[in-house]
Each structure stands twice: as C-alpha cells, then as structure tokens.
Amino acid sequence: MKNPENFVKLFDLNVPKIEYFDYYLLQLSKTQKYKDIIHFSKLFEESEDEILEPYEYRRFKAQEVTEMIQSTNAYNELCYDKQLVDYPTSRNIEYDDDLYYFSIDLRSANWIALKSYDPDHINELGATYFDFLSKFNLPRVFIESKYLRQFLFSKIDTKKIIKVQRNLIQQVVRDYQDELQLEGVRNDEVIFSFKKFTEIKDIFEKIDKVKYKVKIFKTQKMEDFRIDNLFDISGNLIHKELVGLDSSLFYLNLKKYITGENITLKDLYFRSNGKLAIWYDNNLKIDLNV
Predict the structure, then answer these.
(1) Residues 193-231: b if buried by 16+ CB within 10 A, e if exposed
(2) 57 within 8 A of 51, measured Cβ to Cβ
(3) pTM of the full predicted structure?
(4) Average pLDDT of 10-31?
(5) What is the mean pLDDT of residues 213-232?
C-alpha cells in the first residue's frame, strides 16, 4: 500500500503508530466489527490512486448520491408522507448479565427506508442495494464496506429517513413482543431478552435474513465497558467483542479479554492530543526500551 495513512483516515482506524500498520490491522481483524479489514485494505490498494484525498472523495461521492436520490420519485414520496408515526426510542438499555439478548436490526437501513417508497413498477433505486450503488462508479472498497457506505447518505435529510426506519422496525416489535420480553428499541433495531434458546428458535427461522441482521448475545459488565458474548442459534459461543471501551486501551484489552495473546509494546501505544503516548503497568513485564 502506497499510503496507509489514507486508508486509516478513510476508515477512521485506531492506529497509534503508522510504522506498525500491518500489526494493528491484524489485531483489528480479530474483532467482529473489523473482521474484513484486511480484505478492505486490499480493495483500497486497487483504487488507491483514485482516492488521493479520502475525506474529499467521500464528500464528493456523498454529494453525487444525494443529488441522484433527491431527483427520484421515492424521495419525493418520502418527503410528503404525512402518515409516519413518531415512535419513541430507548435512551438507554440496562443489560442484565444473567439474561440472553436477541437483537434484530435493519440491514442497509438507509436504503431500505428509501426503497420502501420505490415500487417494483418504478424501480428507480434498483432491485438491491448493490444495484443502486452500481450507478455511481464506486470503487469496490466503498461498495463492500458498510462503514464507508453510510457516508454516502450523510447529506440526505436523515430525520425523515430515521423516522421511516423506526416505523419499519415497529413491525418487528409488533410481531414478537408477545413472545419475548422487549428490552429496548432504537431507530433501526429492536432488542428482546430471553432465558432459553428454545424461545427464539422459531422466530429466528421466520426472520428475513436478507432484510434483517440478527445478533444473539449475553453481556459481561467490566469496570467501564462490557464484553458481549455472541452465540449461534444452538447456543454455541462463537465470538466475543468489546463494547464501550476507551480506544486508548483497545489493543491492551483485546488481548487481555478476547484473544488471550501475549501483550507486546505495540499494544500499549495510543494517541493523546495528536501525540504518541504509552500505557505503563507494573504488572506487565515489558521492556519499554525496545
């Protein structure tokens, strides 16, 4: 890669020392959120000469997408829809370490919201989200990355789209609130709790996995963050992830709580006010003079 700094900027990655770019990318790839980050780095290399100024490129493409969307019948229908209900959302969800949680959220939520106003006989937005994205001559790294795709809608009137998402997710609430304990609702996600996996098996099978993403998890509260233990539908533990963690402690706690690997000097680096800093812990036997 000619300029890893641009890749870091584009994805807003936590890379304290760019000299160790490959190392930090490898560590990030061990998390659920960044499991495909090495793949995206290879896609970025394919179009690196095209994306010389990451923020400017993102802004330019977002404007292009905005202008196209605003010219569609679907967008006009959305703007003039007076039937949308202003449903409330949950400010905070208090998790109980003794319960399991079943999260259902919209995939490609912005596009799904718009697409709900684009009937098949008009089909201005394409049959799928990727059909829609193919209209803009985007590099593959933008098409495949959920993180980058969200910027493409950054200049659209998000308040109305968010309200549409909340109305769509309300249907999921109605469908299952009598079968499971409702714990909280966000604009594009609903979270239920349960105690036995038999409670969710039939619901899991009914859910449209193309439209919705499902997450089954149990929480473990730490001092100032939590660990989500992720399960498959049979109750097998498949992954763990850090949630709400101070980014300066990310690599240290990734090894401490998730991978179990030996902590190295690279894991102690972090950035503070633009300057490189390092954590010091008497309990860690690491030579800081390396």
Answers:
(1) bbeebebbeebbeebeeeebbebbbbbeeeeebbbbbeb
(2) yes
(3) 0.89
(4) 96
(5) 96
